[in-house]
Known about the structure:
The chain is of the alpha/beta class and 476 residues long. It is built from 16 helices and 11 strands.
Amino acid sequence: MKRFQSLSEVRSELTAGTTSCRQLVEYYLGNIERQNPTLNAFLEVWPDEARAQADAVDARLAAGTAGPLAGMVIGIKDVLAYAGHSLQSSSLMLDGFKSLYTGTAVQRLLDADAIIIGRQNCDEFAMGGSNETSYFGPARNAADPERVPGGSSGGSAVAVQADMCLASIGSDTGGSVRQPAAFCGVVGFKPTYSRISRYGLVAFASSFDQIGPITRSVADAALLTEIMAGPDGMDSTASQREVPAYSQLLTPAPHYRIGYIADAIDSEGLNPEIKSALETQLELLRGQGHVVEAVEFPYLDYMIPTYYILTTAEASSNLGRFDGVKYGYRAPDATDLESLYKKSRAQGFGAEVQRRILLGTFVLSASYYDAYYTKAQRVRRLIKEKTDELLRQYDFLVLPTTPTTAFKIGEKQDPVSMYLADIFTVQASLAGVPAISVPVGEDAAGLPIGLQVMAGAFREAELLAFASALTEEVLA
C-alpha cells in the first residue's frame, strides 16, 4: 500500500473500493511492527481494538453513514485521556494507571469515526524539547535515528513522519507540537488558546496547554481542528465562539501583509541553512505580490525567562496531586506519610520534572513571588500586547520554528541550552495566538527545516488557508 499524504487521498481509495479501513489498519500496524523497535514512537498499540473500529467504520461507509474522519488512523500522545486505556504521561509516576474517562477532544475524534491505533511517546509530563526525558527512553527521528525528534510531542511527530499513522494528536505548551513537527518535516498546528477543550489533557501549565494535530497536510490539520474545537461544558476555559468549517476555507486571499521579526532572522544562534530557507521563502512571497516587511519585537530576549517562570509555577501547582496516595507510583520503602510523599515524588518523577517543580515552587514562594512570578506575568502582558499590535498591522508574522535542525541525542546536556531551543515558539504560547509549522525543505544533511507562521487570535481559518498555500507553493 502506498504512503498517503492526506485523508482526501484515503477517502478517494475508500470510495473507489481499492482499499478499506481494515486494510489501512493492517498497513499501519505492519509499519509500526517494523519501525517502532528502532524509533520508539509508540508506547502501546491496540491492534485488536483498531481492527474492530476499522470494521465498524467500513460498515458505516457501506451504509453511507460514516463520519468525516472515516479512514483517518491516528495515534494520541500519552497525555490524553482515553477510557480504559493506559495514561502515563511517559512517567513512572503514573505507572499502571488507566484513564477512567475519555477527554473531549478524543471523544469528538471517535464520534467522527477516527480510528485510534495507540498511544505515543513524549517527554515526561510534556516537559522537554527533545523527547529525551521520557521514562521509556527517547523517540528517534526517522530522518536520522541518532537525532532527536523534538518534544514534547516527539513520538507523535515521528509516527506521522515514519508513516506509522496518518495523523497524531499532541499537546503544545510552548511549542511542543510545532517544534517536533519542524524537526520531523511534518505539519504541526497550535490553535488559539481555548479553541479546543483541555478536558482530558494531563495538565502541565494550564494557561498555556493546548491540544493540536500533527499531520502530513494542512488540510488534515484543518479538519482535525474543526472536529475537536468548540465549547465544552466540562471545560470552563474553552471558548464559546462558533467553530468555522476550517476544512472548507482553505482558499487564500490573493495578497497579504506579512511581517517577519528581524531580530529572529539575525539571531546569532540561528542555523545559517534555516536562515537561508526562511529568506528564500520571504523573497518568494514578495515576488508573488505580498507585502513583506521587517518588524521590531523588543521582547525577544525576555520570552524564554518569562515562559519558564510561569510554566514551572503552574507545573509546581498542577503536579502537587501526584503524591503516592491516590493513584500511580507509590514508594515501596516508605515508612510513614511524610516519607511516602517524599520518596514517591523523588522516585516517581524524572530529573527534568523535579527541576521544574523546584523552580516553580521557588518562584511562588512568599519571598520571591513578586520578584519573579508577578513580574513575569507583567512581562507576559507586554509580550501579548505587542504581538496583538503587530497582528493588527499584519495578517501574519513569519519566523523560524526552531533555531537549529534536529540535534543528536544526548547533545544538549545543559538545561538552559535545551530551553533556548524554544525561543521562536514560546511567543505564540505567551500571547495565546494560533501558530503553525510547515516544512520548507531540508539542510545539507537531509534534516527537515520548518517555517512558523502566527496569526491573530481565532484567525485559524486565515492561517490554515495561508499555510496550505505555502505548502503547495501556489500563493499568487
